[in-house]
C-alpha cells in the first residue's frame, strides 16, 4: 500500500480518490476546507496548498505521487493558478513524489487538424497561456532533475457534475427542454469520460515511461454534439433534443455581467468547428482504452438523475 496525495476534490479529484481507495492504496485528499467524499479509506485534510508549500510538503512526505486535480474558478485562473502550480512543483521536488497534473486542451488554441501531444502549444488567450506556462515550468524542472512530472489532457468531460458543455446541456435534454448554447451542433467533437481521466492519470503517475511527457486521455472517436445529445436522450427515453445555436454576439453580451460567460469567449472556437483529439499514444503506451461512449453516457445519465433527485429527497440545496 502506497501513499497518494490528491489536491482538489472536484469531479476528477473525488473520482481519483475513490479509485485509489478501491485499489487498496492510502489516500490523502487535500482541500482548503477539508472537503471531499466521506469514506473511511480516504483521509481528508484542510490545507491551503497555494499559500503553504511547507504544509503541503509535510503532507506529501513519503508519497509516491502528488495529483494536481485542482480547478480554480475560470475567471481566476491568471491569479490563482501560478502560486498553486509553483507550490505543487516545489513539493514534488522536495519529496520525490511524481507530480501528475490534470490538464486540458486550451493550450493548443484554435486548431485545423486532430490534436496530438505534439501539436504546438500556440494559445494566445489568458487561460491557454496560463496552462502552457505551468507545463513549461514543470517540464523544465523535470529535465533539470529537480522533479518528476507528467500531465494528462482530456476534452470536455462526461460522467460527473461540473461546468463542461455536456453537463450544461444534458440536464435540459433529459428534461425535454430547449437547449440554447453557442455550439455548432453538427461539428465533430471529442468527449472524454471522467473515469478514463482517472485511469490515465494514475497510470501516468505510476509508470516511469510516462514521466516528463504529456498524454491525451484515451477517448472515443469524435461525434457531433447533436449526436451526443440524441444518444443520451435515447438512453433516458427522453424526447428528441431541441438544440438551438446561440449567436456569438449574444454570448459576448452575456459576458458583460457574467464572469463565466465572459471566459467562454476565449474557448468558443472549440465548439464552432471540428475539435478532435487523438489519444492513440496513451492507449499504445499506457494500455488505457476508452470506455465505450454509450456506457459513459449511461453513467452520466444516471449521475444526473441522482443529482436531480437528491435535493428534493434531502431537503438540501446545492
From TrEMBL:
Coiled coil (UniProt feature): none
Domain NAD-dependent epimerase/dehydratase: 6-208
InterPro entries for this protein: Epimerase_deHydtase (IPR001509), NAD(P)-bd_dom_sf (IPR036291)
Superkingdom field: Bacteria
Pfam families assigned to the protein according to its UniProt record, in alphabetical order: Epimerase (PF01370)
Transmembrane parts of this sequence: none
Protein name in UniProt: Nucleoside-diphosphate-sugar epimerase
UniProt source species: Micromonospora matsumotoense
Amino acid at each position: 500500500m502506497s501513499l497518494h496525495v490528491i489536491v482538489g476534490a472536484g469531479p476528477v479529484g473525488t473520482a481519483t480518490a475513490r479509485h485509489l481507495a478501491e485499489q487498496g492504496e492510502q489516500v490523502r485528499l487535500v482541500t482548503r476546507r477539508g472537503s471531499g467524499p466521506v469514506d473511511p479509506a480516504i483521509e481528508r485534510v484542510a490545507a491551503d496548498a497555494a499559500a503553504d508549500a511547507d504544509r503541503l510538503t509535510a503532507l506529501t512526505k513519503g508519497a509516491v505521487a502528488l495529483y494536481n486535480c485542482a480547478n480554480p474558478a475560470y475567471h481566476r485562473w491568471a491569479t490563482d493558478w501560478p502560486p498553486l502550480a509553483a507550490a505543487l512543483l516545489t513539493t514534488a521536488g522536495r519529496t520525490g513524489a511524481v507530480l501528475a497534473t490534470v490538464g486540458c486542451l486550451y493550450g493548443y488554441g484554435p486548431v485545423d487538424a486532430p490534436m496530438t501531444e505534439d501539436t504546438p502549444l500556440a494559445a494566445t488567450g489568458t487561460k491557454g497561456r496560463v496552462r502552457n506556462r505551468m507545463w513549461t515550468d514543470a517540464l523544465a524542472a523535470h529535465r533539470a532533475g529537480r522533479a518528476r512530472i507528467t500531465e494528462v489532457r482530456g476534452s470536455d468531460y462526461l460522467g460527473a457534475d461540473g461546468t463542461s458543455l455536456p453537463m450544461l446541456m444534458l440536464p435540459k435534454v433529459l428534461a425535454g427542454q430547449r437547449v440554447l448554447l453557442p455550439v455548432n451542433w453538427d461539428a465533430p467533437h471529442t468527449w472524454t469520460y471522467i473515469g478514463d481521466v482517472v485511469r490515465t492519470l494514475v497510470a501516468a503517475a505510476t509508470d516511469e515511461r510516462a514521466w516528463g511527457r504529456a498524454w491525451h486521455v484515451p477517448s472515443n472517436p469524435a461525434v457531433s454534439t447533436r449526436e451526443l445529445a440524441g444518444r443520451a436522450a435515447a438512453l433516458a427515453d427522453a424526447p428528441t433534443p431541441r438544440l438551438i445555436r446561440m449567436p456569438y454576439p449574444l454570448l459576448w453580451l452575456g459576458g458583460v455581467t457574467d464572469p463565466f460567460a465572459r471566459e467562454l469567449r476565449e474557448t468558443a472556437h472549440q465548439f464552432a468547428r471540428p475539435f478532435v483529439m487523438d489519444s492513440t499514444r496513451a492507449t499504445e503506451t499506457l494500455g488505457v482504452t476508452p470506455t465505450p461512449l454509450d456506457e459513459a453516457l449511461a453513467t452520466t445519465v444516471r449521475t444526473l438523475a441522482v443529482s436531480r433527485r437528491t435535493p428534493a429527497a434531502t431537503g438540501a440545496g446545492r
